[in-house]
Amino acid sequence: MASSTGVLFRVHTFGESHGPELGAIIDGCPPGLPLDEASIQQDLDRRRPGQSRIVSQRQEADRVRIASGVFEGRTTGTPIALLIENGDQRSSDYDDMRTKYRPSHADYTYDAKYGLRDHRGGGRASARETAARVAAGAVARGMLDRHGIEVLAWVSSVSDLELACDPAAVTREAIEATPVRCPDPDVAWSMIQAIEAARKDGDSLGGVVTAVARGVPAGLGEPVFDKLDADLARAMLSLPAAKGFEVGSGFAGTRLRGSEHNDLFYREGARVRTRTNRSGGVQGGISNGEDVILRVAFKPTATVLRPQPTVDQDGNETTLEPRGRHDPCVLPRAAPIVEAQLLLVLADHWLRQRAIR
Amino acid sequence: MASSTGVLFRVHTFGESHGPELGAIIDGCPPGLPLDEASIQQDLDRRRPGQSRIVSQRQEADRVRIASGVFEGRTTGTPIALLIENGDQRSSDYDDMRTKYRPSHADYTYDAKYGLRDHRGGGRASARETAARVAAGAVARGMLDRHGIEVLAWVSSVSDLELACDPAAVTREAIEATPVRCPDPDVAWSMIQAIEAARKDGDSLGGVVTAVARGVPAGLGEPVFDKLDADLARAMLSLPAAKGFEVGSGFAGTRLRGSEHNDLFYREGARVRTRTNRSGGVQGGISNGEDVILRVAFKPTATVLRPQPTVDQDGNETTLEPRGRHDPCVLPRAAPIVEAQLLLVLADHWLRQRAIR
Amino acid sequence: MASSTGVLFRVHTFGESHGPELGAIIDGCPPGLPLDEASIQQDLDRRRPGQSRIVSQRQEADRVRIASGVFEGRTTGTPIALLIENGDQRSSDYDDMRTKYRPSHADYTYDAKYGLRDHRGGGRASARETAARVAAGAVARGMLDRHGIEVLAWVSSVSDLELACDPAAVTREAIEATPVRCPDPDVAWSMIQAIEAARKDGDSLGGVVTAVARGVPAGLGEPVFDKLDADLARAMLSLPAAKGFEVGSGFAGTRLRGSEHNDLFYREGARVRTRTNRSGGVQGGISNGEDVILRVAFKPTATVLRPQPTVDQDGNETTLEPRGRHDPCVLPRAAPIVEAQLLLVLADHWLRQRAIR
Amino acid sequence: MASSTGVLFRVHTFGESHGPELGAIIDGCPPGLPLDEASIQQDLDRRRPGQSRIVSQRQEADRVRIASGVFEGRTTGTPIALLIENGDQRSSDYDDMRTKYRPSHADYTYDAKYGLRDHRGGGRASARETAARVAAGAVARGMLDRHGIEVLAWVSSVSDLELACDPAAVTREAIEATPVRCPDPDVAWSMIQAIEAARKDGDSLGGVVTAVARGVPAGLGEPVFDKLDADLARAMLSLPAAKGFEVGSGFAGTRLRGSEHNDLFYREGARVRTRTNRSGGVQGGISNGEDVILRVAFKPTATVLRPQPTVDQDGNETTLEPRGRHDPCVLPRAAPIVEAQLLLVLADHWLRQRAIR
């Protein structure tokens, strides 16, 4: 189960940073949907490193191929295998990591769990694994698009630089207009400068991604454990470097009074609407037809280009020398990954809801 | 799956606020553990309403009975059924709710999902359902206790009243010393006054619960989707009124630089330790042996004793008149529920880890 | 998972032979279906012992109560809890079983698995647990009935007495006309005499139950592991005393040539039909619209009223003295249980199919 | 879930007969086990067509590559991806199948389920998919071998030619001595002749595979739905062409009396043993330490080289002309596939049992 998610739109991923291949299997995608490699590649290209100076300079071609589940351009209803070969593997960059535990990485915990680990590039713990999720998310996007559901994610803060904006007004174009994926050009410019400064400093920055899903029908999500926002929280915290999750008003909402926080219902044509959306589109774990809005906190990248004291796998105290390439800020690349996770959760709950009514 | 959680320590709950009974089935609890109703009742009593003036005055006896899975005082390895009869059902309090949608409750979303709903007391969406989780959590506590794992949760903020304290120093005694379950008596006193003021005002307050798990061995949690913190996020967001989740440094950590945020390793006797714990005891989704620390945001209770404009199930605009009893602040009762959810996730991952090594 | 089945129509059971209560939780039943205790009781009464001289004389009232998930006579879409109190518990009948392993029962294997066991009446391994499945099956029947699906099971052999009949012609009335549940009165008469003779002899008989599902639409079942007949095989082998399963031509079909065995397609009005039904209504794991036909082999009851050599839990060789009541032949009571399992599998796959198209 | 199996040793397969690749992902294999492609290839080679005149003459290289989950020759505990490229794809052999439904194949049911299908070679319904299962089974074999568990399967009947032998005496060498995989050379010879005759006749034969698992510890399997034999039944009926399953005495056992059928316990050194093994090594769904013995019925191959009347996807009556290559009897190749399924179920239950004690 560790590498699987979903009840009906079910995704299994595999692959390590420096293994031969990685990929995703989607089991449960409805039949008859148009699907080709190009549409998946589009999302993958947005996640890819090497897109700009502010992200990792690794060159990963991330070329996806569809190995099953599609016939004559349409999904068949059987498992869709999306495979990606690993290229550009400078494993020697990682020799120091074979025995030394990098601070705030998963080296030590993998050893503690498994008794051994593939140290190259972080192995299975590498953010490289998210390429498989983005590929799967692109398939979910294709399905949801036909039902009028649109998903967008953007960088809403980097370190203490925060974007104030109305999520309803954000567009894909504004997001993609700058390499930092912040839809406001001025804030984006400040973020880019901050990231470049951190990079030169051998240091790293964290931040927040905000995501919105529009056109979600009321009724998705389940009572109790499989609430829509519970599944979204799991999906987001399953991302590397994620440390927090909010839906709607989140932590800030805890400071309001009930009379201020409640989203009052009114009628708009045939629809029941709410005048505010502090619920973030989810009430009692079930979508209410308003935009689903969430925020994900990402810590600053653990890899910094500075010597750090640590211990090795034999328990000896030692020093980790800085080496290799690093991503001074994962946020720009995190945005398409958050989209993918949101798409996967929605696709699953969309199918689950169709089953019962 | 909606009402199930866990892979090996698997919990299924059932029951509505005003139905005949509610309960939890635990499937996968190891055999041979001592278990009786009294030890479960202890946890249930902490969740129960009517304990003090600052929580709901409903009287729910919440008397649990063990209907299966225990023989001569020990678990048998087969499903443990924990059943609780509903008493004190003043359904007539809820007549107004039959057709009118209460703001920021699940009335509308249940109707949208199912086409009908048990309106009495919120039905399945009622926080009453968490009694079953607390009962199940008590069984997990019994199991984890034998492996040296201790779980505590407390109220760390109510509205804008925040507790600043070292999670490592908090004790059960300090938590239970006041009805608000904040371990600092001065802050607790302020919180109680704020809650009473809100109650008199017919309004409600939100806040944050902080939880810690001590003695968790390194190695629990899985790569990718079933990360320990991902499962914890899901568990916490599945609670009524939860709007946010943080592990370790959370959202505040996004403002640090990597060089500040990293938890440096050192050696303490035979153990690998970290000097700080911004990771919250989880790295790469796997426990590292430090305390697991998390925070959950709860919005202010949606029920307020004031007239609110709304719509009814036929789409007519109408007014919801204030009526019945309400919980001006769920936080004090949320603490034992957060503990239960944390216990359930740890029990499940503890068993999963034993399976592989 | 041990006590759960189904992906969307999900059933969890609990309870031991001599514990306080047993029951089933159904999670995923669609909302809006009429459901009351009387309709469930009807199926339970057919499973109940003490109905005639040829089955166990235990008196189990098996009175079901609906504890959740139904509001004003209709299902709400939330978990339906079906609870049954255990009565008439002559535990002292089983004192000998506390330490001695009954041959071909689960006493030894439970001890080997769990290190302890509830010996009374077989504990969790008792066929009494099937009462919960029959109750759950009745709910599935209610759902499938609305979609025109009818399920029947009958006793087609007892020991070497075999019924030769056309499954398409069997009716509920013919099945229930005799206590042995064999639809042919002459064969039924012989079976009853054979069972009575075995009972007088303190011995027991096995046999075969045949089941048919009519009106199953084409398209239910999944490729690969979740084939409809694979899920049916699991469902049937999960019954106490079951030792074999066949769908369609079964073992006898292995002796035919492909040219004899193939079911040729033809057209009947708008439907694609097959001229024969050696496939048993399932091709490639997916229903083809013909009757689903299966057979389940039940071994002779392990309880015989004769002294049997055995060993006890300390490994001492000893003798098990005959005692208590026994079921000389489980077949008559097995028929409604087979129906229940067939209903549960069909309900689950029916919902799964609705999700994808 | 359709293409997944197992709770802890979890296998996902993908791929069609004529798609680019097929494969299996194993999620949950314990870390530290030696694993290389050669050991998997060994099992794959036994399943491969083209090994002798009595099986299909298709040439499938079935070369497996390990794409993840293995580092420096040992499993890492993360998902193991086993990928196999499809070669020798004479899709034009199947042009007739694009619109016409082959009798007793899955063509019609796939169309009914999905509304479209990959007709080439049967697509996902092709027995080619079992290559992925055999590869996964080889990994399970490596794990179980270290715990002293050995699994063997052989052809015990072809049409009406039956092998009478003691399963305890069968060896791998005897099985592999002839291409028909029947361990008795005389019976094997008759079977081969029968199969060749059927092939010349353009017809096909069915038969039975018997399998045994030796060294299985007592305690594997779960009460109720996940009984060891229930999971085995599902695993076996999920194989193409499987129509029946027996464990231990199976259908023949229904003709015995309880006093004849019971397996009496005795003590052998420290072990509790049974004098007979009509239970087939499973009692109450849990292994008892005796050999697990089962039988699987396979119908005669549906592909026959004779014209057959049928209908096409538009409902027109038509004739299917014989064409292409066919497997006159799947039994010889079914034996290693049955082994694989048995291995997968045992590996899963072995891990599940380790989790609880």
Number of strands of chain A: 18
pLDDT < 50 runs, ≥5 residues of chain A: none
CATH superfamily of chain A: Chorismate synthase AroC
Name of the level-1 CATH class of chain A: Alpha Beta
Under CATH, the topology of chain A can be stated as: Chorismate synthase, AroC fold
Element layout with pairings:
Four copies of one chain form a homotetramer.
Chain A: E1 4-5, E2 10-14, E3 21-27, H1 37-47, E4 64-68, E5 70-71, E6 74-75, E7 80-85, H2 107-114, H3 130-145, E8 150-158, E9 161-162, H4 172-176, H5 185-200, E10 207-214, H6 228-237, E11 242-247, H7 258-261, E12 265-268, E13 271-274, E14 282-283, E15 286-287, E16 292-298, E17 308-311, E18 317-320, H8 331-356
Antiparallel strand pairs in A: 1-2, 2-3, 3-7, 4-7, 5-6, 8-9, 8-10, 10-16, 11-16, 12-13, 14-15, 17-18
Describe the protein's architecture and organization:
- Four copies of one chain form a homotetramer.
- Chain A has 357 residues and is of the alpha+beta class.
- In chain A, helix 1 crosses helix 8, helix 3 (130-145) packs across helix 8 and helix 6 packs antiparallel against helix 8 (331-356).
- Chain A has helices at residues 37-47, 107-114, 130-145, 172-176, 185-200, 228-237, 258-261, 331-356, and strands spanning 4-5, 10-14, 21-27, 64-68, 70-71, 74-75, 80-85, 150-158, 161-162, 207-214, 242-247, 265-268, 271-274, 282-283, 286-287, 292-298, 308-311, 317-320.
- The longest helix of chain A has 26 residues, at 331-356.
- Chain A has one domain: 4-Layer Sandwich (Chorismate synthase, AroC fold), CATH 3.60.150.10.
- Chains in contact: A-B, A-C, A-D, B-C, B-D, C-D.
- The interface between A and C is medium-sized, with 14 and 14 residues.
- Strand 11 of chain A pairs antiparallel with strand 11 of chain B, so a sheet runs across the interface.
